[in-house]
Amino acid sequence: MTGYPRWHTASEQGPRERNADAVSAYAAAGAPGITFALADGVGSDPSAGRAARVAASAAARTPVSEGPAAAVRTAQQALRELGGTGDAVLVVAMPFPGGYRIAWVGDARAYSWNGSMVRKLTEDHTMAEYFRARRQPYPPRMEHVVTTSVRTTRPHEIGTTEVVGGGLLLTSDGVHKVLTPATIDEILADPARGASGLVATAIAVGGRDNATALFVEPPEVDVAAVVTEPFPTAA
Fold first, then answer.
1. Are 214 and 198 in contact (CB under 8 A)?
2. Where are the beta strands (DSSP E) in 48-98?
3. Are 72 and 158 in contact (CB under 8 A)?
4. Could you identify which of 35, 49, 121, 231 might form a hypothetical disulfide with 110, taking C-beta atoms 3.0 to 4.6 angstroms apart as the criterion?
5. What is the spatial distance between Cα 19 and Cα 132, in angstroms, rounded to a whole number?
6. Which of 187, 184, 195, 144 minimizes the C-alpha distance to 36?
């Protein structure tokens, strides 16, 4: 895997009964790099975990030529073929020379990393964000009510963006709704911490949800091997 960036992923169940987060990474022959996907199951029952795993895997294996929005639609088709009612939110980062094209539904996030600070690339698809954009008040629980998901989204509702250069961070809400941007910056600036540091800190400071992070280091620290930390997800 020479030439691919060094990346790390970590997840903790936290106080939930099971871990319903999932990550997937796939490098197709001839593609410009690795496609990354992070999914967070809606709810905490076994169907949520299965939905997250199926969505993340299907998205990551979508041909790069089709683009990240197509990866979300592929994940949707995979959930419909799975049957049941399990659902997930999802963020996909698909490589192109020099950067990543990103698509998402729900409140899974992508950030860029310039070596000292993160910059949020996605906007949460939540009721809270809907009301904020309209300068209207809302109760705190609206932060956790998503307006799009893998199973329910329509094509025009899929968020898209892209980023050139630097590192990349994907997170579930168990990380980014617990840690401040300044805390994320501090953790990523320490090479010994990375994704595992983000997740451990989110749980340690009182996070009540599954916490998952996937961190792709900036190109200037590329190494010849891809490194990952395996983690369990719901059965």
1. no
2. 88-96
3. yes
4. 121
5. 30
6. 195
CA 226 to CA 217: how far, in whole Å? 11
**Burial (0-12, 13-18, 19+ Cβ within 10 Å), 29:** exposed
pLDDT tens-digit series, residues 174-222: 999 999 999 999 999 999 999 999 999 999 999 999 999 999 999 864 4
Joined together, the tokens standing for residue 60 give 């990551």
159-164, strands of its sheet edge to edge? 21-26, 35-41, 88-96, 99-105, 159-164
End-to-end CA distance of the chain: 30
Map residue 201 onto helix, strand or coil.
helix
CATH T-level assignment (fold) for domain 7-221: Phosphatase 2c; domain 1 (3.60.40)
Instruction: Could you list the beta-strand ranges (E) of 43-158.
Output: 88-96, 99-105, 109-113, 118-120
Paired with 9 in beta bridges are 214
Instruction: Provide the 8-state DSSP code for 144.
Output: G
pLDDT tens by residue, 16-74 = 999 999 999 999 988 889 999 999 999 888 999 999 999 999 999 999 999 999 999 99
